[in-house]
Design a protein that fits this description.
The complex is a heterodimer of chains A (672) and B (654).
Chain A (H helix, E strand, L loop, with lengths): L3 E7 L3 E8 L4 E8 L4 H11 L7 E7 L2 H7 L6 E6 L5 H4 L24 E4 L2 E2 L5 E3 L3 H14 L3 E5 L8 H13 L4 E4 H4 L5 H31 L6 E4 L5 E2 L4 H4 L6 H16 L5 E6 L4 E7 L2 E2 L1 E2 L2 E2 L5 E2 L3 E2 L2 E3 L5 E5 L5 E7 L18 H7 L6 E2 L4 E2 L2 H16 L3 H23 L11 E5 L3 H12 L3 E4 L6 H5 L5 E12 L5 H21 L7 E11 L6 E5 L6 H16 L8 E12 L20 E7 L2 E9 L8 E3 L2 E5 L2 E5 L4 E4 L5 E4 L1
Chain B lengths: L12 H25 L3 H4 L3 E7 L4 E4 L11 H12 L8 E4 L11 E10 L2 E11 L28 E5 L2 E2 L1 H8 L5 H29 L1 H25 L3 E9 L10 E10 L2 E5 L15 H15 L7 H4 L2 E4 L17 H19 L13 E8 L7 E7 L29 H7 L2 E8 L15 E7 L2 E9 L20 E5 L6 E4 L1 E7 L4 E5 L14 H9 L5 H8 L3 E5 L4 E4 L1 H18 L4 H9 L5 H7 L13 H15 L5
Parallel strand pairs in B: 10-11
Antiparallel strand pairs in B: 1-2, 1-5, 3-4, 3-6, 4-5, 6-7, 8-9, 9-10, 12-13, 12-16, 14-15, 15-20, 16-19, 17-18, 17-20, 21-22
The chains are: A alpha+beta (672), B alpha+beta (654).
Chain lengths: 672, 654
């Protein structure tokens, strides 16, 4: 049997397994229900696909283990030790709420309760001068208390430790000596960055996840090894790269968005493959839709993310906007008579009315079914859909109250849903100075291909790309990543007096650390790629912008000019002559892993006859529409809408007036 | 491009819902732009708001993340501009206004307004409002609590043009900026807000291209009707009747001690609601007065808290009638000082919380802590340049106990829940002030069956400075945060200062220009929220959990809740409820507490001075208010405070 690469994406309902055959470069997919121990489903799916663990050359993995542990507070007994007077930083947060007006809505509580937040006397000044050192005796007394309480993990978070971590290191040394086996992390090693709430919060998330992720990675690695897999497990993290289990001690919190990063990576990759460096990823599932954006081949990133409001995780993360709209979103009429869509979702149980599992409220899936856009079998026919129930739900809840017929009501439901999703895409594109007309929309997820063309039309996006396996595209993203670390150094100076040589020295320090980390993970020097950027802002402004810079760094003025141009693009204006402040130096360290190469298919196949036809209602009217089976469509064929393309994991809708063609990688590219 | 639409009721449901969301989306895009490019740290920390108004100035959409205190005021300032310029409004114009006497809030809230023209016709306005860090006036930050009229407060900007037909009016912009302490930042914020307003223009024009300008204008009216309909339906479901209460500002510093009443009477009749503030005190000799705009904002914000999912637009405002005679503390007119309008704003809002709690018990809530704002200004003597520095610092605090759960802890004030507190590390880097602690205050929460949320305690030390002064903008040192349904008060506000080598002294909750030197230590706190329900009915296990977390002390578990705990293991923070002792203690308190509220206040003050009673005993058990520094009784204040406390407690204590 030939060698394969395997990517596993574990979701709440299904575990998707993507298998790339290295000899033929062809992709296979396997979908199995998720299990209580997620590793069971992964191994079961691999076995079901007939893959021998010993034949796997590379195993990469996106997991919701960390996310779920946080949300369910299924965390190890952990403590945080703070500077005396500052034990409540993670509870105070920035003092705001997710919903400003609902006084009965509470923020999620901190990951470490107040009883487990202890203090010690110590202080470092804002300039990094130690004003009060750790008292050895007090530290030992504290250690005794921590031991008595039986914590598995301890975070150390001191004020101004970003400027000097000496006191944190001193306490860590004592605790490691006194508390063998307890994971001790400090804020100065996890995120040496100014602003205590963000740093403490990130450090605490890291501390509580470290045992969770460490245990999980070890168990996974052991079970794979027992079956004959002899490389590292690669874990997908927020930055769009992977890490090996060896890096989870300092970076465990980066796995908290492991589950959603893969889709964005796949989006970027597909865009590159098809010659579209600017792509918007539209990953629409049952209950939510993830929108990502790549510009000139790079995914937008942010440091402003969290799993639960009020508890930031400030490692750089792919910027993904998740909105509560999906195939299962429910249409309803509000008290004042307006037709709304979501955010409530029918979920998978009971699911939309057409699932026939007791759902009585009409979901987007019901509307698609009633209009014939969706056929009566999902997931390859395993699950039959009940058109009559869908009609009844729409009739009762929407059509009658609005005085419409069922078809008109179903169209209304979908137009509202599509407009809401288009608004979300607007927030990530137009808002940041990107014009949708410069992009292609990559539509995937269970429902993305059904809605993609309508969203694109609304936004004047000219092309929609539907990848070969829309339902498992996220898992495929896991096959496409490199080992990646993001390092940073707070560096506050007015650009007018900045010394390029000093900045160069600072970058070298970061590079040394980056090389050490990659080497630790077994990356050869030749496979290391280090790239630099600087965060800058106008003096007095509060938000900074990131500008890439070259190695070696010699020219501050050029960087300032690039900053002005970026500000103009992103915010519509620049202030020539104003003070520009350097805020932070960033280094991205990539360890290039062997990449999947998808098979290229020569064009020339003939356009197949449709498997069937059915009557489909479009905004343009009812049309008898050909239904194609995706696997029948070879590379190079082209066809005009209206058309519906069905496959096991998704349905693609090509509306009237649009044209579609199948490219060399078997993507359907729709010109809207 | 104009698609015919004959009447509002013929708007199809899809177009309506799509455009309704699109308008909000436009305002969200404006907010994102302002926050990313602003200069004022106050704006950055979310003291801003944006709106899309129709051609008459009525608000079509306001951001859901906007500051509460701006809600319901943006349409007034838009109408003020329209009234001033009438037909003299042209494409390419941009206007500026901060005038609180024509519907604004206070001078710091400066609004940029852009008229949007389609086919040469004015169809809408976009408006971006931000709190600028300094407007000039007698003190840095423009909050001089001793001001009695506007001339000490800052520059008043009536409606003026800052862009004329596409030409920047540099002279006007400079005239305004040069009257402040940081002209560059003011110009920067003006730019940022203007760009935000332009984004709305661009996006609205896109919608007009797609749907036709007629449809857009029809929908402007329809979304206001929609909100009005939603609110009226809910009002109609509430019982008809009148309810009233009174809350207090602490004092008129220019007069003898005594609480300053704000009366609120709410009447619901069918699907309409009226608020009558008649009986409120005349304007006072400080900046703690509100003009009508700020008062109206408080009323609609109070209502919005009980209908949180209703979108903000003029349709909501149409359901409300406000009655208030001129020249009261909540209806001040030019030139009375109104920079501190928020003190009245929060009293009105909390009064409305109390009134709605009676008719919507499922969303009931006791009083929240009061906003506070410490300004430190002087020369930073740490380095060579000796630059001037300004440190504006505000805290979060506790909100009132709720029906079935404790209050929100360490949350921004109801003036604007989105207002973030600032990082200490940022402050220490910029200013010669070190923070020695910033933590939750044990026992700050008002006791109740459901206690208030917890408040904060912040202490600091002044480092190397020259000519440095403090001003403090706060309230509820005397009109202490109150409970409802038998719940008890939180804790008094106020700041303590301990100059190097001198004893600490209490400066209270409102003062201006107090010199502070190197080595001075200072501390102040925020109250927790008021309690909801009788604290003797709180589950002893909950009290125990609060003690484990240090939210409540062992001592106050006994005194406030009648819960007696045994320490099992202090290292492990393990306690056990002593059931028998708890039963006895609760019986004792229940029998005695009504009497405690009638004990001679002079005696209570004397025992406080002697150290026999502490602050919480004096306020929570006896309803007595003193000068917290000297311990001297404030007799008038105590009389009114006690009367309200009895009204809120005695009927629920059985």
């Amino acid at each position: 049997m030939s060698k394969v690469r395997v990517a596993v994406d574990i979701g709440g309902t299904f575990t998707d397994i993507c298998i790339l055959d290295e000899a033929t470069n062809t992709l296979r997919v396997q979908k199995v229900p998720s299990t209580r121990d997620p590793i069971d489903a992964a191994l079961e799916g691999i076995a079901k696909a007939g893959v021998n663990l010993a034949d796997i050359t590379l195993f990469s993995h996106g997991t919701t283990v960390a996310t779920n542990a946080l949300i369910q507070r299924n965390l190890p007994h952990a403590a945080v030790v703070c500077t005396e007077g500052f034990r409540d930083v993670i509870e105070i947060g920035n003092s705001t709420k997710a919903d400003l007006w609902d006084a009965y809505q509470d923020n999620p509580p901190p990951y470490i309760r107040r009883r487990d937040r202890l203090t010690i006397r110590e202080r470092t000044s804002a300039a990094g001068v130690v004003e009060r050192s750790i008292d050895e005796a007090e530290a030992r007394e504290l250690a005794a208390k921590l031991r008595k309480r039986g914590y598995r993990a301890v975070a150390i978070c001191f004020m101004n430790a970003f400027a000097n971590g000496e006191n944190e290191r001193a306490l860590k040394a004592v605790l490691e000596a006194e508390l063998p086996g307890v994971a001790v992390t400090t804020s100065s090693e996890v995120l040496p960055e100014i602003f205590e709430h963000e740093r403490f919060s990130t450090t605490v998330v890291n501390a509580v996840l470290q045992p969770v992720v460490g245990d999980y990675a070890r168990r996974l690695q052991d079970r794979l090894a027992a079956g004959g897999y002899d490389s590292d497990v690669l874990l997908l993290h927020s930055g769009g790269g992977v890490m090996t289990p060896k890096s989870t001690d300092r970076q465990a919190a980066r796995l908290a968005s492991s589950g959603i990063a893969a889709g964005a990576i796949a989006n970027r990759y597909i865009g590159q493959l098809c010659g579209y460096p600017n792509v918007i990823g539209f990953d629409m599932g049952g209950t939510s839709t993830d929108v990502s954006l790549a510009w000139q081949g790079e995914l937008l990133t942010t440091r402003d993310w969290y799993i639960e409001y009020g508890h930031p995780i400030c490692f750089p993360s792919i910027d993904i906007k998740t909105i509560g709209a999906g195939g299962g979103s429910i249409a309803w009429i509000d008290e004042a008579g307006s037709l709304r869509n979501g955010p409530q979702s029918a979920g998978s149980d009971p699911g939309p009315a057409c699932y026939g599992r007791g759902g009585e409220e009409p979901a987007n899936t019901d509307a698609n079914l009633v209009l014939g856009r969706l056929g009566a079998g999902l997931a390859g026919g395993d699950l039959g859909l009940d058109v009559a129930r869908a009609r009844a739900a729409i009739d009762m809840r929407v059509a009658r109250p609005l005085g419409m017929n069922v078809e008109a009501a179903a169209q209304a439901i979908l137009r509202v849903a599509n407009a809401n999703m288009a608004d979300a895409v607007r927030l990530v594109s137009i808002m940041r100075g990107y014009d949708p007309r410069d992009f292609a929309l990559v539509a995937f997820g269970g429902a993305g291909a059904l809605h993609g063309a309508a969203i694109a039309a609304d936004l004047a996006i000219p092309k929609v790309i539907v990848p070969p396996h829309p339902g498992v595209t996220s898992a495929m993203g896991c096959l496409l990543v490199d080992i990646r670390h993001d390092l940073l150094s707070t560096y506050l100076v007015d650009s007018a007096v900045a010394d390029a040589a000093d900045i160069e020295r600072e970058f070298r320090v970061l590079e040394d650390e980056a090389r050490e980390r990659l080497a630790h993970e077994g990356v050869a020097e030749a496979s290391m790629v280090l790239t630099r950027s600087i965060d800058m802002r106008y003096g007095g402004q509060w938000r900074s912008l990131t500008v890439p810079v070259l190695r070696p760094f010699t020219n501050v003025a050029a960087a300032v000019e690039d900053f002005g141009a970026a500000h103009q693009r992103e915010y519509n204006y620049r202030r020539n002559g104003a003070v520009v402040e350097i805020f932070r130096l960033n280094l991205t360290a990539i360890g290039v892993t062997p990449k999947a190469e998808f098979a290229r298919h020569a064009p020339g196949g003939a356009m197949p006859a449709p498997r069937s036809t059915r009557s489909v209602t479009f905004d343009e009217g009812i049309q008898e529409t050909p239904i194609f089976w995706r696997e029948d469509l070879p590379a190079g064929v082209a066809f005009a809408g209206p058309a519906v393309v069905e496959q096991f994991d998704a349905t693609t809708l090509v509306p009237p007036g649009a044209r579609a063609e199948v490219d060399a990688w078997l993507n359907i590219v729709i010109t809207v | 491009m104009d698609k015919p639409v004959t009447a509002a009721n013929q708007l199809d449901p899809v177009t309506f819902e799509v455009l309704r969301n699109a308008f909000v989306n436009i305002v969200d895009q404006m907010a994102e732009q302002v926050r990313r490019t602003c200069y004022s740290f106050v704006v950055y920390n979310r003291d801003f708001s944006n709106a899309l108004c129709d051609a008459e100035g009525n608000t079509v959409a306001q951001g859901n993340q906007d500051l509460a205190a701006h809600v319901g005021t943006l349409h007034y300032t838009c109408k003020a501009v329209i009234e001033e310029f009438g037909a003299d409004i042209h494409p390419g114009d941009v206007f500026l206004i901060n005038d609180p006497y024509v519907g604004g809030t206070h001078f710091s809230d400066t609004r940029v307004l852009l008229p949007i023209f389609v086919d040469g016709r004015l169809i809408a306005w976009s408006q971006a409002n931000g709190h600028w860090a300094d407007m000039g006036g007698s003190v840095p930050g423009s909050f001089d609590v001793t001001a009695k009229d506007m001339f000490k407060e800052g520059i008043r900007v009536p409606p003026v043009r800052i862009w004329r037909k596409g030409e920047y009016c540099y002279d006007v912009a400079r005239l305004i900026a040069k009257n402040t302490r940081d002209p560059d930042a003011i110009i920067g914020d003006m730019d940022a807000q203007t760009q935000a307003a332009r984004i709305a223009e661009r996006e609205l024009k896109r919608l007009c291209d797609k749907y036709g300008v007629g449809t857009i204008e029809t929908t402007f009216a329809a979304v206001q009707d929609y909100v009005e309909r939603a609110v009226r339906l809910r009002l109609a479901e509430l019982p008809d009747g009148s309810w009233e209460t009174v809350d207090f500002v602490d004092q008129d510093p220019s007069k003898a001690e005594g609480l300053i009443p704000i009366h609120v009477k709410m009447t619901i009749a069918g699907d309409a609601i009226e608020f009558d503030l008649t009986g409120s005190h005349p304007t006072i000799g400080s900046i703690y007065n509100s003009a009508f705009g700020g008062t109206f904002a408080a009323i609609v914000s109070g209502m919005k808290t009980f209908f949180p999912d209703v979108p903000l637009n003029a349709g909501l405002y149409r359901t409300v009638t406000v009655t208030v005679p001129d020249d009261t503390i909540v209806s001040a007119r030019w030139p009375v000082a109104v920079t501190g309008f928020v003190m009245c704003f929060e009293k009105i809002m909390n009064a409305i919380f109390e009134l709605f709690s009676r008719i919507m018990p499922e969303r009931a809530m006791a009083c929240a802590f009061n906003i506070e704002y410490l300004q430190t200004g002087g020369y930073d003597a740490r380095g060579a340049g000796r630059p001037y520095f300004m440190l504006y610092d505000w805290l979060a605090g506790g909100w009132g106990g709720r029906n079935g759960r404790d209050g929100l802890g360490v949350t921004a004030s109801c003036f604007g829940v989105g207002l973030m507190i600032q990082p200490v590390e940022g402050q220490e880097r910029l200013c010669p002030v070190r923070t020695d602690r910033l933590q939750i205050t044990t026992d700050s929460a008002g006791p109740g069956k459901w206690r208030g949320g917890v408040g904060l305690d912040k202490a600091g030390t002044i480092l190397d400075v020259e000519n440095c002064v403090f001003s403090y903008f706060c309230d509820r040192e005397r009109s202490v945060v109150w409970g409802i349904e038998g719940g008890l008060p939180g804790a008094p506000h106020g700041l303590w200062l301990e100059p190097e080598g001198e004893p600490a002294r209490f400066l209270g909750a409102v003062f201006s220009d107090v010199p502070v030197g190197k080595g001075a230590r200072f501390w102040r706190g925020t109250s927790g929220g008021g309690g909801y329900g009788d604290p003797l009915e709180r589950d002893p296990e909950r009290v125990k959990e609060d003690v484990v977390d240090d939210y409540v002390s062992l001592e106050r578990a006994r005194k406030d809740y009648g819960v007696v705990l045994e320490v099992v293991d202090e290292d492990l923070a393990e306690y056990r409820v002593d059931e028998a002792a708890t039963k006895r203690e609760r019986a004792h308190i229940a029998a005695a507490r009504a009497g405690w509220l009638d004990e001679d206040p002079e005696q209570i003050a004397a025992r406080y001075r002697a150290g026999e009673l502490d602050l919480h005993d004096v306020v929570r058990r006896h309803g007595v208010i003193c000068d917290w520094g000297t311990g001297e009784l404030l007799a008038n204040t105590t009389r009114d405070f006690r009367a309200q406390m009895k009204a809120r407690c005695l009927p629920s204590w059985n």
